[in-house]
Write a structure and sequence with these properties.
Rossmann fold, alpha/beta, 14 helices, 466 residues, 2 domains, elongated
């Protein structure tokens, strides 16, 4: 560990002890324009639209933990533009309409940037407000391909620190075609796929990626893809019955939905399968040995497991989503030095939950979003929106090929370099985070599986394979 990194970690530990940050708080701020903590003026306020309630509430610990780590690190280093950073967090209820209200409020309170919202449909709803205000927006979880379309290169205000669904849709189709046992196995591959997807900016576009890609491999979609509202319904037995009565029987189900919908759908599908086996004993081997379920990043949420517990009050109870597979961006890459440096910072500031060996999914991508926005403000030398937007591209990938790379452990050095007018390339915890001209990044994916009371990594798919 370098002396500089040791100093940063030590500062975080000391500041954590003094501040005792609670990741349930509305904002993280320590300054107020007192000329000491904030010699450059009042604290810089960055708004954060987070689904503390609703379908995305399972991500709260991840998103707040990422922001807490960034806030404490930055402020321990003296802040940005010699001003402390404060994250003003508001609950958007995981709903597009509420996110619009939240973002209006954050912008009216002079937020210099917006982090979130989490869902693609929410980003779609708030983007006109973002554009009108000329304020950069960064989401760590919104993946729809629709969000980075409709404007010229380097003229958009939306950025994200996870890869979009062009790659994820291909990952779903590839995994389904190869099967859980791998392409060399003699059995277990999916040739007939059922699809259930959210009828929103997230699910609809990904369905349109999965279907043609899977059919191009030689597969078929049976029955025709089924859309459902993004908000969970009390039952999906109609959809489940349609799936189990399809001809031919589907070998797999792809679910492009959020965790609450996924839980209810899996539960009802298990019931429908049991009824089909009772009526058609010859289907037993197919359902028990061939069929498998594939979720997406919308279900890669701790609540997908906890809400599926057979005994809800027992944390060790088996979940009825046991065995479900899925895809998501690899936000906890174990062999990435920048991720492990971030993990050290996170453990010093927030601390891991008992029994967990890594922060929650998307903690690192939210941290990267916050750090990139802060570095862009430093690079711009102002909070003026257009200047910060332009600097987002520069700090993420460097203005030229000679830019010096900095990771989470070198944020202090990156700030110093920017103060000297030098070119930097921030390499993030979750990935390199090099924004293309439309605010997108590339990244690797994992195949996850619910095993016991947690998600386990079943396999990896590199970005170069998609």
């Amino acid at each position: 560990m370098t002396a500089r990194r040791s100093l940063v970690v030590a500062s975080l530990v000391a500041l954590s002890a003094a501040l005792v940050v609670d990741v349930s708080c509305k904002s993280y701020g320590t300054g107020g324009g007192d000329g000491g903590m904030n010699p450059g003026g009042p604290a810089l306020v960055i708004g954060a639209s987070i689904g503390e309630t609703g379908g995305l509430s399972g991500q709260v610990r991840a998103l707040k933990g990422g922001l807490a780590t960034a806030q404490l690190q930055l402020n321990a280093l003296g802040g940005i533009l010699n001003r402390q950073i404060e994250f003003n967090i508001e609950d958007d209820g995981s709903q597009p309409s509420l996110a619009t209200t939240v973002v209006k409020g954050l912008l009216s309170s002079k937020s210099v940037g917006i982090l979130g919202p989490g869902a693609s449909s929410q980003v779609q709803a708030v983007y006109p407000l973002i554009k009108a205000a000329s304020v950069p927006e960064v989401s760590a979880t919104a993946t729809s391909i629709l969000l980075a379309q409709g404007y010229p290169a380097k003229q958009g205000w939306f950025f994200r620190t996870v890869p979009d669904d062009t790659s994820q849709g291909k990952a779903v189709a590839q995994f389904a075609w190869q099967g859980p046992n791998g392409k060399e196995a003699s059995t277990g591959q999916c040739r007939h796929m059922a699809i259930v997807y959210n009828d929103d900016a997230y699910g609809g576009p990904m369905d349109k990626i999965i279907e043609p890609y899977f059919m191009g491999l030689g597969g078929s979609i049976v029955p025709p893809s089924i859309s459902v509202p993004a908000n969970v319904a009390g039952s999906y037995m109609t959809q489940a019955t349609s799936i189990v009565s399809a001809v031919p029987l589907p070998d797999c189900l792809a679910m492009v939905v959020f965790a609450p919908v996924g839980d209810q759908l899996v539960n009802d599908l298990r019931t429908a399968i049991a009824a089909d086996i009772a009526s058609h004993p010859g289907h037993t081997s197919h359902w028990n040995n061939t069929f498998f379920i594939i979720g997406t990043d919308g279900c890669y949420d701790p609540s997908f497991i906890t809400n599926g517990r057979v005994a809800p009050a027992d944390p060790m109870s088996m979940s009825f989503v046991q065995g479900v597979y899925g895809t998501t961006a690899d936000t906890n890459p174990p062999n990435r030095p920048q991720y492990n440096d971030f993990k050290t910072l996170y453990e010093a500031e927030v601390g891991l939950v008992s029994g967990m060996t890594d922060p929650d999914p998307y903690t690192s991508s939210e941290y990267d979003a916050a750090i990139l926005l802060a570095l862009a403000i430093q690079a711009a030398g102002t909070t003026d929106g257009p200047a910060v937007r332009n600097a987002m591209f520069d700090v993420s990938r460097g203005k030229g090929p000679g830019a010096t790379a900095y990771g989470p452990a070198q944020v202090a050095d990156a700030i110093d370099a920017l103060k000297r007018g030098q070119d930097i390339n921030y390499n993030g915890a979750a990935g390199d985070e090099d924004f293309d001209d439309f605010g997108n990044v590339l990244g690797d994916f994992i195949i996850w599986q619910v095993q016991g009371t947690q998600f386990a990594t079943h396999d990896y798919i590199a970005a170069s394979q998609l």
